Amino acid sequence: MKQWNKLAALALGGAMAVSLAACGGTQGNAESPAAGGESGSSGGGSYTVGICQQMTHPALDEATRGFKEALTAALGDSVTFKEQDAGGEYANCGTIMDGFVSEGVDLILANATYPLQAAASATADIPILGTSVTDYATALSITDWTGTVGGNISGTSDLAPLDQQAAMLQELFPDATNVGLLYCSGEPNSVYQVETIEGYLTEMGYTCTQYAFTDVNDLSSVAQSACDSSDVIYIPTDNTAAANTETIANVVIPAGVPVVAGESGICAGCGVATLSISYYDIGYATGEMAAKILTGEADISTMPIEYAPNVTKMYNAANCEALGLTMPEDYEPIA
Questions:
Q1: Taking phi first (over 0 means left), then psi (-120 to 50 degrees means alpha), and beta for anything else, what does residue 33 get?
Q2: Cα–Cα distance for residue pair 45/36, rounded to 1 Å
Q3: Partners of 47 in the beta sheet?
Q4: pLDDT computed for residue 45 by the predictor
Q5: What is the DSSP string of 227-250?
Q6: pLDDT at 335
Q7: What is the pTM of this model?
Q8: Which domains does the chain have, with CATH numbers?
Q9: Low-confidence ranges of the chain (pLDDT < 50)
Q10: CB 97 within 8 A of CB 66
Q11: Cβ atoms of 313 and 332 closer than 8 Å
């Protein structure tokens, strides 16, 4: 049974117990064509799209950019975007989504897991597209996952093949013994990735230890603990880590411990290698989905979650040089 709407509502209800003001301001200038929680446009004319991004960092920024460019390419200046950044706070996502619903936007882009959960709780009528969401079943507590969320939700996933990421780590560090898994415990999709890749790495003979931080305040100390006991560290596509790569780099580089990252943005900041998707590409694909939904060409309830078609082996040249590492020839340098 699909329980995501009920469970997301309960989770948001707890988070909203702490009253927070909506962060950021609306960037669109046009007024939405309808209000009261109903979708405003009906197959023509102008469209208002609400965008809630969980926080600011390169991967999410690129997904938003790709989404806007694809939708603008398809529908031109008939689209008005209302952009809000939640600053990494779950409660802010709820406030932003409630605002979008009351304004009667025609479609919501939920960029990352917290916005997706908040949007699912806020409306069952306005179309919701997620992007930069690793696993929709985990994010929405769906127990009978078939590849399609159904209802008013679809989108794209940023999941790179975790078995291939584990194989890459083994390729680069075959003599390592201990792998530290560094992630934010408050991000459900980070937990999912860590638990999944730990299974692959354990089968390969590595000893894995999870190092979970709660937020940026304990990130440095937890990263130091991971360095003290690990030969190599793995960081999944974790938003808190992605927004604070300098903090991590200031620990791992002096300690001489290499980081294999789940995506190129984290790798560019504190890693040595990654098997990464393009966040711009998944954002663009989400924008193409949005255009079909707004024009009535597609029914969101039947649209399966889409995945990035390509992954690329990449490396951070500066960090590799600092740690005395040489990457194989089939790895591309991060620009």
A1: alpha
A2: 19
A3: 79
A4: 81
A5: HHH-SEEEE-S-HHHHTTHHHHHH
A6: 81
A7: 0.80
A8: 4-157+279-304 (3.40.50.2300), 162-276+312-333 (3.40.50.2300)
A9: 1-43
A10: no
A11: yes
